[in-house]
Amino acid sequence: MSLPHAILTALLEKPSSGLELTRRFDRSIGYFWSATHQQIYRELGKLEADGLIRALPTEQPARGQKKSYEVLAAGRAELARWTAASQDPKPHRDPLLLRLRAAAVVGTAGLEEDLRRHLELHERQLAEYREIEQRDFPPGRDATEDRLRHLVLRAGIDLETFWTQWLRHALADFAELPDGEPSGPA
Fold first, then answer.
1. What is the pLDDT of residues 158-177, one digit of tens each?
2. Alpha carbon distance 25, 10 (integer Å)
3. Among 30, 61, 94, 162, who pairs with 25 as Cys (CB 3.0-4.6 Å)?
């Protein structure tokens, strides 16, 4: 996914200013696609220059007034093209997994504590996702938009469930490891 497409999606859901987009990214899209305030503003400029969005007219032009943007027909067409295009999954890159692999040759000092910390973080995120699910997706919300948004949330719930289960398994394995340095080549 690319930032321009995330912004087009958010603006089609609701025309917004850059600041409002930043806040919305923090509350929803940011769970699976993050962007800084500067990245969002830079991308808004590019999208406007490319004719995919436009700043909404204001009643009274004022210096420093925040601009709100809406998606133009070309932006909607680009988002539809991108949505329909095939895309291969990206390989998963996670420093924790690489650190575990490195521990096989340099030792496990500090890793068990960090695994516990990761477990706490994933448990908190899972609880937050479940709270969002309870609040925003009660039984009977079957509109297409709701079902698709719920699928995205379900992906987050399922990923956090995977990580909490995997980390518990990893910690159980750590408890069975002999103390000391690895026996492999140095």
1. 999 999 999 999 999 998 98
2. 9
3. 30
**How many Å from the N-terminal Cα to the C-terminal Cα in the chain?**
40
Q: What's the CA angle centered on 38, arms 34 and 40, to 5 degrees?
A: 55
Beta-bridge partners for 69: 16, 55
Q: What is the pLDDT of residues 28-81, one digit of tens each?
A: 887 888 888 899 999 999 999 999 999 998 776 656 668 899 999 999 999 999
- Return phi, psi of residue 14, to 5°: -165, 120
Give CA–CA dist 33/2, Å, rounded: 8
Return the pLDDT at 121: 97
The residue among 113, 79, 111 whose CA lies nearest residue 98 is 111
Q: Band of the pLDDT at 10, cuts 50, 70, 90?
A: very high
Packing angle of the helix pair 111-136, 95-106 (nearest 10 deg): 160
CA distance 47 to 35: 15
Q: Say which residue the tokens 């509109």 belong to.
A: 143
Listed in order, strand segments (DSSP E) in 25-181 are 53-55, 68-71
Q: Under a CB-based contact definition with an 8 Å cutoff, are residues 67 and 53 in contact?
A: no
Give the position of tokens 């390989």. Answer: 91
- Is residue 69 within 8 Å of residue 48, measured between CB atoms? yes
